[in-house]
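Thread title: Can someone regenerate the structure for this chain?

I was given the following input by a collaborator and told the matching structure tokens would be attached. They weren't. Posting the sequence so someone can regenerate them.
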Amino acid sequence: MLLSQTDGVRNAVAGIALEDNPVAQPPPVVERTRRVIAEVPSTADRNFNRLTMGAGISVLLLLLLVGGFLLIQSSDALSETGIWTFLTRTEWRTDVQPARIGVLGLLAGTVLVAVVAVGIAVPLSVLCALAITEYSTAKRRKWLVGVVDLLAAVPSLLFGLWGFLFLSDKIVPISLWLSQNFGWIPLFETQENAGLTGSIFIAGIVVALMVLPIITSVVREVFSQTPPGEKEAALALGGTRWGMIRNVVLPFGQGGIIGGSMLGLGRALGETIAVALLLPQVPQKLGESIHILENGGATVSGFIANRAGADAFTTSGLLAAGLVLFIITLATNMIASVVVSRSRSGAGVDI
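Best answer:
Regenerated them for you:
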């Protein structure tokens, strides 16, 4: 009873002291408001945004102008031949009346050369990218990247001359070995006493060396963005370096590998000078067996380069073939961009 009265007196005295001393009063409770950060770009940022936007719009305008030019210039051949007939006919003959021209035979050779090139270049590019990012020291990595980038700067004309004058004779024994051991595969089958130079296989090897730097650069950049934490965790759990690459690096860079391969495919589809020198530019007849080891074959770009300067109707037909190749290459590059953007490549890395 006495303790309760003492506590009451003490509390009353403390209340009178707080009233007499306003400094000792507790501060009023203020509700916290969320701070809104407004980003105000500087003049340099606004100018840079306008510059990059203008560059992007100019690229789109150039693509539209190129496509419109090809469409207008090829209208004569397409209107006379018919779009469907032009797309499905394999032969190309302008020495008869009416002219019989079609792009299917040229597209078949173009796709074959590109597929052979990508089939050779993609494994080599992935191995080169892994060697640069995972197995090379920092000092060695610099000059390896420089060598790959310099390879991309070599003109296609030099690749074509090198393939025509030097590489063709060196590949003939390989083509002969493939035909003797894998001739049961229709693509590797050869006719008796057939020439093995000037083939789609040789052209594909040369084009593979041309697209290898492009694919390697894309794949290397993707592999270098693999989250270090995941790599270190795989090694900490007792995994080998190859096990870490197989379980972490390759799955992380899968989208980049696909995107880089498709970018290389787009580059291979449009190659001109090298294939113009290496192939006889005879349209492929799809009714017959396709032999990539034998002399023969043509691509759209190489055929256009060899027939440039012909009569007006032939030129219109060549531009129509160029329009088809333009659409296919553009679609391939767009699909590659979508694949790369939707992949996990680059996720979880602070730049």
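The first strand starts at residue 92 and ends at 93.
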